[in-house]
Every structure is written in C-alpha cells, then in structure tokens.
Amino acid sequence: MTRCLLAIESTCDETAAAVISEDGQILGECIATQTELHERFQGVVPEIAARAHLDRILPVIDSALRQSNASIDDLTAIAVATHPGLPGSLLVGLSAAKGLALAWRKPIVGINHVQAHIYACGMGRQESVFPCIGFVISGGHTSLYHCISPMDWTYIAGTIDDAAGEAFDKVAVMLGLPFPGGPALSILAEKGDSNSIPFPRPLLDDKTRLDFSFSGLKTAVRYRIAGTGKQSWNALALTPQLRADIAASFQQAIIDCLVGKSMQAVKKFGVKRLCVGGGVAANREFRRQLTLACERSTIELHIAAPELCTDNAVMGALAWEKIKMGQFDTLELDAKPGLLRKG
Fold it and tell me: pTM of the prediction?
C-alpha cells in the first residue's frame, strides 16, 4: 500500500473525509450533505450544522477508510481544515482529527480551506499550476490571491460585503426559489434574457482597486421585484418570463464583475495563469464566459472540476505540501474561524 493521508472537512455544512495517496490518487471519499436540514431556513444555520457534523463525522471517516482499504499503518498523517469556517463546525472536525491522531499515534496537519480550494485546481494534473492568481468564489468567500507556490500566497482583494455565492442565495430567496438557491437561480437564468435588465456592476469600472461589492446589486434586484418602499412581495406573482429575465440579468452582472476583476488582477500582477475554485466556480455560464475571456487574453486557466468546487475533503491533499516541508502541527492546534489573508 502506498503512503496515504486521511483528510477531514467540516468547515460549513458538508461533512467529508477522503483518503488520498501521495501521488494524488483518491483512494476513498465520502461526503454527507445537510441540504434537507437547512432548507426550511433558506440558509445554513450554524448550530444545526455543528450538531449534524457530530452525528456524521465518524461514519463518514469510516466509509472513506473502508473504500480505500487502507490500514492505520498506511496513514502518514491526518489532515483537517482549521480555517476559515463556522466555529462549531470547525471544532467538530478538528476534535475528531485530534482524537484519531492521539489514538493512532499519527501526526496532524491543519490546512486552510480557502487555500485548499485553489490547490484543487491542480488535482489530476502532472504540471504545477503555480505560480498563479488564485480566485475562490463561494457562499462565504470572493477572494483573489497572488500564489507563488502552494504554500506561498498573499491576499490581494475580496468582497467588502456579500460574497458572490451569498448574493446568489439571497436573490434566489427573493425570487421564491428553493434552497440551495445558487444552482436553482442558474437553472432559471437559462430561460431568461441576460441583457433585459441593466443591473449595476459595482466597482467594475474602478481600476484603482480589485475588490468586489454585491450588496448594492442585491438591493437593485429587490427594488426590481418589489418596487421601492415595500417590505414584502410575492415573487411568484411575477410572470415566468420576468422572473427568468431577472435571474439571467442578475447572474450576468455577477459574472461580469467576477470575470472583469480577475482579468484586472492577472494584468496587474503579470501572472498569466488563473486558478479558480469554490462553489460558484461550478456555475456553467460563469465557466464558459471566463474561459472565453482567458482565451482572448492568452491566459492559462485552471478551474477546479465541478465535483471539487463545492466543499470536499479531497482538496485536503494540500496537506502533502506541508508534509514535504516537515510542517506538522501539535495537538494544541486550534480552529480559526475568520478569513486569514496569508497562509
């Protein structure tokens, strides 16, 4: 049996574990979703998420290990995402990792969840994707990084209010779409005209900064649906075509901002390689338009495979980079819920 790594992910509402070999092969993987638990709240409830992780963490780990046929002796280390994320959720995964590390006498490696999303862009590739501009777009993050290597990266810019995925989910609620809202809104957008409503593109024309802002765009959508001054509305009273046009026009505004700012970042730092990960990176229309933009500008683009865009433990393979450098953690390792701007 080759050397392998047990990776654990519990940063938000996905409980995941994976066994990954040193050469990047996925030997075993298991993900337990919580969609049905949060659906009636139209968003992730942190306390519910943490309790669900408690119920699922050990069965998920057991399933990944059984799939891999790996023994405890085959494990080089146990990796766990320690930041950023929901405090309670992070602590469940970290506690499980510490308990197993102590019981099995294995070293533990803490990893940055956002950094791992960028690393996932290189999974399955022979050549390194570094150096690059790293771009993580999800429900909690819309952040650009200058990545010299897997372990040498610096925060460039990010959203000053809502993350792109958060904006998708909130507008989906306004349109009466089911949870999770982002995918449902994208499906509805396929039936609409993306040029029908001139929603704003916040900060896109500001060439002096690379930050994002989606709160004002979200408000513009609200006013288009309900009008000004109204506290409530019935989105289902809109015509089906208007709902689709609103979804398509909103999505296009988001895409224009994401594509535009990432192109600006590549130009500013002179790195002609862009790596994109996170849940929003699974959006088909975004992937299509970003691909076209990179082809026009001769930028080498690497977008994580759709199954590696959403939260998973496979991207915990990042821990091999720390292992190669001898960077192990102790059992004093702690969770750090906030977004760290440098690895």
Answer: 0.93
